[in-house]
Amino acid sequence: MIEVKSLTRLYGEVIAVDHISFKAASGEIVGLLGPNGAGKTTTMRMLTGFLPPTSGSAKIGKYDIVEDSMEARRRVGYLPERVPLYQDMTVFGYILFWAQLRQVKAPRDRTVDVLKRFDLLGRRDKLVRQLSKGLRQRLGLAQALVHDPPVIILDEPTIGIDPQQVIEVRQAVRDLRKSHTVLFSTHILSEAEEICDRVVIIDKGRIVAQGTPDALEKQVRANSFTLEVGRLAPERVLEVLRAIPGVASVKRRDAHFSVETDGSRDVRGDISGAIVAAGGELLEMKQVKSSLEDVFLRAVQSAADNPQGQKKS
Amino acid sequence: MTVTWTIFRREFASFFVTPTAYIIAAGFMLFTGVFFSQEFQVAAVRRIPINPATIPSLVSYMLVFFAPLFTMRLFAEEKREGTVELLLTAPVSEASIVVAKFMAAWAYVTILLGITLVYQAILATYAPQDIGHTILAYIGIWLYSGTVISIGMMFSALTENQIVSAFSSLLTLLILYVGDGVGGIIGNIQLSEIMRSLSLEAHYSTSFAAGLFRAEDAAFYAGVIVIMLFLTMRILESNRWR
Amino acid sequence: MTQKSGYVLTRGRAAQIASFVGITGLITGAIGMVWRSGASANYALIAIIIGGLGIALWAGLTPREFRETITGKRVRYGTVTIVSTALLIGIVTLTYMLLQSAALTLDVTQNQSFTLSQETLNVLRRVSRPIRLTGFYTARNLAARELDDQFFRLYTTATNGLIERDYIDPEQNPAMAGRFGVQEDGQLYISYLDAAGEIDMTTVSRVPRGESQERDVTQAISRMLIAGTIKIYFATGADERDAFDTTAEGIAGINNGIRESGLLTDTLNISQIAMANGDIPNDAAALIITRPLRDLTGAETDVIRRYMDGGGGLLLMPDVTYNEDRFMSETGTFNTWLWQTFGLRALDAAVVDPDASASSALDVISAVVFTESPIASRINPEAGTQTLFRVARVVEADLLSTPANIANGRIIMTTPFGFGERNLADLGATNTFGFDEGEDIPGPVSTAVWATHQVTGSRVVLIGDSDFVSNGQVLSAPGNGILFTDALSWVSGFSDEIQFAPQAFTSGLPTVFVSQQQVDLVVFLSVILVPGILLVSGLAIYARRVRR
Ligand SMILES: Nc1ncnc2c1ncn2[C@@H]1O[C@H](COP(=O)(O)OP(=O)(O)OP(=O)(O)O)[C@@H](O)[C@H]1O
Ligand SMILES: [Mg+2]
């Protein structure tokens, strides 16, 4: 449904998106992962037709985003990073406007449907400006879905809302699976893992890794721990830990130490043994779930080692 | 077309859901009202005729100050709220957006002009009016208002800041308005002729306001409107290219 | 494929060159047009034509690229945007210029302020030499200049350019202003052009600027056209009313009026001409005889007869006089000749009309006007343009046995209750009058009549009163002046030259009296009520929004 080929975008001299290529099949949910400034928004803006690409091409369905911009745009629902709202419209009026603008058949019925879906029907006559942030986010989603587009592009839809709302939004995105192709960006790996069929990781405009969450995890399986050690000088702790085979790196953060293994073996037993043997006291050992940062750092490292890294087989 | 109509409706309605438009209208009518009642009083006491173009001519001056107040938000607000991003990614051409917004603002001014017909009604009970002349003066001021709006809208598209937008269009309109009388200051007749042919007022005061329809003046206003709409479209688009 | 791309390349390059030439041409042309000084306009036109061809070529060679440039898909860069905008401005400017030179206008005013009347067009039809209107306007006065030019250019159009317009800034060209004697901003002069196309300074005259532009300019043109061609003579020598007498009894007022409308006037003494066996001068377009205090002699009648046989114009204004030898006495030589030749005569009776008169029944107001006569079309008692004759002679047109080749008719008549009082002696002595059956002339009676000889073209108007044009009374009724000028215009043939219908409608003139309360109401309505309603609606919207 979405096919991106060597898409590139420059802002003046700055390369925001650098020859990225990926595909999203029909009914697939694809997560676009990357830190701030990675080029997620820029990529999405190109796909939605807001920005033209500097070079490369992309297709929504069979329509090129430049050559057949209108047709491509017709097939996309978009929720920008900052939810765009007409503050002085009513909830109903707002959704109806987008429905009419996208020439939905029976726009009123459709508006009622989406409002119901996002549990906004009870507030249909409220002014947009009076909605809470979470409600606004939902309103934005409703807007993106009102014309039932085959492709839905969501730019960080869960940012800045409370956990309860995050869960709801994620659930809403999951519900779109099968019927829609969803491209959504985030910098929270767990979120991507939770809902995505596939993840594309980008940094500095380049794709550094892509695949299913499982495959990615395997690829970068990183075991990280944080330790709190008592009765032992920090230098000594570092020394002891580094001596353990299978430990890739150790970093000190105040009283805590973070340990990363190369994943070749389980080192937990060795660690506690070594600390105790050195006369220390292991106060806490916590396994850290691999964060985006971790995955990401590895991906970036390998990309730096191998400039062709993003073109993985 | 339906799309243009949809945007037009939203835009037009947006004038009436906030108090701003009413307050602007009230201010507008207050100024015209004070001026009109003075004119009327003088004319009634001395029993002299009132020119049918009195009110439209006054409006031509007031629009310079009032138009920026409601054109400033046309695009600046969409940019501030980010809605422009949705608008530009909807299957809608820039032309539709620009034309719809322009028409909405124009329709608003048309209503303001409609309210000033109260004065014409008062005049009609006071003395027989030259209907043809009155209608032409109103057609002229209507075209003129469209031109003023198109200029204001262009400035609104240029910037995200409403105040900057309002001030730059006010300044431009003022220059275009006084271009008519600038000859008196520079004293060079060739230069003043050129200034005059570019000024907004000159295409109104000597033709529409005098009861003479001149095709070139209508073409001037229509031309400026088209150019401004075109520029606005380009500016809107250039936000994408930059 | 390779061949084709080669072809496309040359075509593309040609289109590129064409687009460049086209845009440059249009912009240069537009600038040249705006500058609009003399010869540059021609070059500008050429540039615009070349520009248009270039654009057309471009569009023809690479229609897609052209379309995309215009519609903007390819407008990626500022330069292209600027060029396309410049192109659009060029097109708009061109359209503007074309429309301006085509001067498509529509005058919607009720008074037709920007349309030449039929009378003016009649005058303009006779313009055969180039005439120039020279206006002096400063740079501060451009709006007035433009407004005036809207009107002056109608004269140019109507005469196919024979009447030219030229505007001079007196501050930039003080020497020229000095030659014309310009005193204030916005003065207008009219003159003939000499063979070299330069202003013939001997013919320059200032055009007065009054209420009606059209009247001012057309009369100025008319004066130029007929300067010296129409001459009116006032008869003297028998105590006629004096054309130079400015007292209430004199008629200097109408004499001046005649002169101001471009006619020449002079006096002539008929008895001297008769004694010398002479003739009335050939240049006499009309002869006015206003109430001599004696009748004309046979010799004098002969002088007039010869003049009329040559196609002359005669305006006769006898009056009620109480002497025996009164002018046009019923059986006198002159009256008899007039009756036999033109079927017109004066009777020895005074007009009385109890039903249409002012303070006395002798002050008769025009009751019945024969508007189809060549003279009376502008006299309408209904519209307030009635005439008022104080003690008038009864005159008569022979409608039953009209002499051969004569067309004649009445102009003004009394009501059926009017009559002709024959007893002039009593009237003069004791101011008594009354209808005496069998003696007085039963009404209605005529007070003004006309006749024309269809072969010689001679024309006569006979009005039974003379004091209606005296300085003291000419303004006492609006129709008095009109009757005189129209009668004179007709007998002299000047009516074929110029005539103005009075404006029927004045826009905006108040018809009702406005009381202070009404003024207060208007102030309340426009200053408080209308803005107030709007303000309250605004606050209501605000309140509703806050509450929601
Ligand atoms: N309008 C712009 N003009 C110039 N540079 C820009 C513009 N928008 C983005 N950039 C730059 O392009 C790069 C990519 O930005 P982008 O907004 O696409 O990142 P992102 O992945 O969406 O980041 P975030 O997580 O913060 O939203 C950044 O370096 C940013 O500074
Ligand atoms: Mg972003």
Structure summary:
With 242 residues, chain B is mainly alpha-helical. Chain B is 83% helix and 1% strand. Chain C contains 15 helices and 19 strands.
Explain the overall architecture.
The complex is a heterotrimer of chains A (313), B (242) and C (548). Chain A has 313 residues and is an alpha/beta fold. Helices cover 35% and strands 29% of the residues of chain A. The longest helix of chain A is centred in the last third of the chain and has 14 residues, at 292-305. The radius of gyration of chain A is 23 Å and the shape is elongated. In chain B, α4 (73-81) runs parallel beside α7. With 548 residues, chain C is of the alpha/beta class. Chain C contains 15 helices and 19 strands. Chain C has helices spanning 2-35, 40-61, 63-71, 78-102, 118-124, 142-158, 174-180, 213-226, 252-260, 270-275, 298-309, 333-342, 424-430, 478-492, 516-547; strands at 105-107, 131-136, 163-168, 187-192, 205-207, 231-236, 264-269, 284-290, 313-317, 344-352, 363-365, 368-369, 388-390, 393-397, 406-413, 419-421, 441-442, 446-453, 459-463. β1 of chain B pairs antiparallel with β1 of chain C, so a sheet runs across the interface. The structure holds adenosine-5'-triphosphate and magnesium ion. Magnesium ion binds next to α1 of chain A. Magnesium ion is lined by residues 40-41, 81, 155 of chain A.
List the helices and strands and how they pair.
The complex is a heterotrimer of chains A (313), B (242) and C (548).
Chain A: E1 2-11, E2 14-24, E3 29-33, H1 40-47, E4 55-60, E5 63-64, H2 69-74, E6 76-79, H3 91-101, H4 107-117, H5 133-145, E7 151-155, H6 163-175, E8 181-186, H7 189-195, E9 198-203, E10 206-211, H8 213-220, E11 223-230, H9 234-243, E12 247-253, E13 256-261, H10 268-277, E14 281-288, H11 292-305
Parallel strand pairs in A: 3-8, 3-9, 6-7, 7-8
Antiparallel strand pairs in A: 1-2, 1-4, 4-5, 9-10, 11-13, 11-14, 12-13
Chain B: H1 2-17, H2 19-46, H3 54-71, H4 73-81, H5 83-89, H6 94-126, H7 131-158, H8 162-178, H9 183-186, H10 189-198, H11 202-205, E1 212-214, H12 215-241
Helix pairs in contact in B: 1-6, 2-3, 2-6, 3-6, 3-7, 3-8, 4-7, 6-7, 6-12, 7-8, 7-12
Chain C: H1 2-35, H2 40-61, H3 63-71, H4 78-102, E1 105-107, H5 118-124, E2 131-136, H6 142-158, E3 163-168, H7 174-180, E4 187-192, E5 205-207, H8 213-226, E6 231-236, H9 252-260, E7 264-269, H10 270-275, E8 284-290, H11 298-309, E9 313-317, H12 333-342, E10 344-352, E11 363-365, E12 368-369, E13 388-390, E14 393-397, E15 406-413, E16 419-421, H13 424-430, E17 441-442, E18 446-453, E19 459-463, H14 478-492, H15 516-547
Parallel strand pairs in C: 2-3, 6-7, 6-8, 8-9, 9-19
Antiparallel strand pairs in C: 2-4, 4-5, 10-14, 10-16, 11-13, 12-15, 15-18, 16-17, 18-19
Helix pairs in contact in C: 1-2, 1-4, 2-3
Bound molecules: adenosine-5'-triphosphate and magnesium ion.
Adenosine-5'-triphosphate (ATP) binds next to β2 and α1 of chain A.
